[in-house]
Amino acid sequence: MIYKLLALNIDNTLLNGNGRLNKATKEAIEYAVDKGIYVSIVTSKNFSTASRLGSTLKVNAPLITHQGAFIANEKQNPILVRKISENTTIDLVRFLEAFHCQIRVVHEDFTLGNKMKMPSNLMGKIVFQSSTRYSYSEQYVDSLLEKLKENPIATPKIEVVFNDMEDLSDASKAIREMFHEIDCIQNDGTKMEIVPTGVSKLKGLLYVCDLLNIHREEAVVIGSGFDDKPLIEWAGLGVVMGNAAAELKKSADWVTRSNNQNGVAYLVKEHFRKQPPIEFLKKMNVIK
User: Which of 66, 105, 174, 233 could disulfide-link to 156, CB 3.0 to 4.6 Å?
Assistant: First the structure.
């Protein structure tokens, strides 16, 4: 099989255990790009975070961020944007503040959250990551609801981290009954991500594959979280990192090494080393 696209998660996949990008991983991605493979990042993280990593890796396909709610090459010119309305965002926060949880409204330009369990040096402050051309702020306030009433926000995603699974289960059930314009995605642990109805990593990837004329069997997906499972099951080659949960590995066509053992680089070496460059294959009329 000739693969044309490589889609990768960030945490525990591209990045190792200490949150850093390994040199071998960077070189492997550059190798794939040089062969004409489309490389995309598919993440629940905000666009600014993904774009910094994408710039370092020199990825050449649109970034699928905010669980698929914000897809773009450049933040100023998004390809696809789906948002939770201002009123629904306010209503959700009003409901969620009844629980003991951390709430973060994750916009493409900034994150706004409540102060609960935030490091003291971040409380009430705005942190600018000015080392890159994408400035991204994080602000934590005493009352998130009051802040949103003053300055309403339509957002691609809301993140909620509960203190226990029972609260997560109760909140998720109630939200599904109360709000029909949003979906709840349960991530690892007690984290829940709220997105507009119909938004998911998989639908974001399908959208990009359609843009690039990539068929299912031509796509390789590498992931490590439970929200990656639909992508891994869909892909022509679904790959799970060695550090992922055993349950997730059952969904994979192939299990690579862990993120601390250069699992992405190992996968690229094993599956792309013998594949000729895409341009060569086109010239030889092997592919269109």
Answer: 66
Q: Residue 253: enclosing H or E segment and its boundaries?
A: none
In terms of Cα–Cα distance, which of 193, 181, 188 is closest to 96? 193
Confidence of residue 169 (pLDDT cuts 50, 70, 90): very high
Q: Is the pLDDT of residue 181 over 50?
A: yes
The answer to whether residues 14 and 261 touch, using CB atoms and an 8 Å cutoff, is: no
**Quick one: which H or E segment has residue 113?**
strand 110-114
Q: Both ends of the chain: CA-CA distance in Å?
A: 14
**Integer Rg of the chain from CA:** 19
Residue with tokens 């000739």: 2
Helices 23-34 & 47-57, crossing angle to 10 degrees? 70
Q: Give the whole-angstrom CA distance, residue 84 versus residue 103.
A: 15
Fold of 86-196: 3.30.1240
Residue 220 forms beta bridges with which residues? 6, 237
The residue ranges of every structural domain in the chain are 5-80+200-283, 86-196
Whether 78 contacts 70, CB under 8 Å: yes
